[in-house]
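quick one, two chains, predict together pls
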Amino acid sequence: MARATRLEYRNVTMRFADTAGRGVTAVAGVSLAIADAEVVALIGPSGCGKSTLLNIGAGLYAPTDGAAFVDGERVEGPNAHVAFMLQKDLLLPWRTVAENVMLGAEIHGQPRSQRRRRAHELLDGFGLGEFAGRYPHQLSGGMRQRAALARTLAVEPSVLLLDEPFSAVDAQTRMVLQRDLARTLTRAGKTALLITHDLFEAVTLSDRVLVMSARPGRILEEMTIDLPEREDPLARRRDPRVNDYVARLMDRLQIGEDTLEPQAIGGGA
Amino acid sequence: MSARPRLPPGAAASVALLVVFLAAWEWGPGLLRIPSYIIPSLSEVAREAVRMWQVSHVLMHTGVTAGEVLAGFALGSLLGAFIGYLLGMSPATEVALSPYILALQIAPKVAFAPLFILWMGYSVYPKILVAVLIVFFPVMVNVLTAIRTVDPDLINLARSFKATRAQIFWKIEFPASIPALFAGLRIGATLAVVGVVVGEFVGGNLGLGFLLTFGEGQANTPMVFVSIVLLTLIGGIAYLGVVLTEQRVLHYLPGRNANRRVG
């Protein structure tokens, strides 16, 4: 069952100039390939360049070396096959929830009736149908993040880039949102790269986990998650084998061993 | 307290304060033996207002000043917003122009009034021009700051949808700047009155600023007071107009309308 590669990074290196004008290498020679309908989680210490990889995949940054490819095509800029979602919901406060969901389709110039129908379908699917006409501030954090997911899906991307999408919501809401995301990804057969700090999230939501090193970020290890029910992370969470995977990831990230080591400055950039 | 849920706390005290103020104005000067050419009582000012209504064309002068304020405010706001958006979208232009804009901002705008009178004569135009100049800066600075502080992730979101530069402006940057634009307009609405009055002080025989200096020249203190009250009224109406428009436009922000249902 060799599936087509959807998203690929070939030898990607990214250097930035820091505030003092020196070059900082955020990621160094990263290569990875994600197959069609596969969900891959990317974990690593803060500032290891995870978000940089995501921005390169979305076509927002051009890498210093190497390239990203979507469906075999080199990413030269933002493209319609890729959509991203961040920790911040980025809902526009002056638009209703439905209008926010339609933003991408509106920019693409899709006819109004068509994009409205699609927005309402998605909102109904996420249990937000009755909130379509509300403004973002009238929604809870979990509902806002769900609306952001609907907006990401509304442009019908084949690849989703998710940067800690649920790290700002409370633990219970997060589990529900993780289930919604997993179901959506599985049913729609979407390919996803999920950046997370939550090791349980990485293990329960993905087919494969990639571990990155501290800056300059490299891929240290690849771990295939050989568990059933990727569409139901709540069921997976009850599986005792999840703990084994998480324990292995903790060892690999040396969590608890050198907690006093100063973290790289600059957050996720 | 719960008997009158509609009134915010302190509203009754505010009305009481007004009554005390008006009473003090009416009887205070007499009790303290302050001559009426220093502080005329409320009833003297009211009598003067009636006299001015009958013989001094006060309505016409008020209309002229209000028209100048409106024109100056509208033109100054449009210009300020336009330049603010232009500079906000072009950092290079901003770097090139910022020292000159700063110099013009520091210069006391009302000091230009005599110059404008020299250029344009005793017409309404120099007054409008002073108001334009004085309204321009708070609007421009607010818009510029708002454009520069738009969350870059919002811009990236639009970019990821392949938005054009114009789409990013109209769908993200412009709506994001509206609250700051209105903050600038509020300041501008009150400053426009200052600009116009100073223009009227300097030259011409029209407007409340002229009536004010005319009253001063005749040692007619009640006339000065009437003019000040009318000028305050014009400024207040302009400010209220901005606030009401703002509430309509920014209806999506939480806490704008107290009676909004949140669910």
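Residues 257-263 of chain B have pLDDT under 50 and may be disordered.
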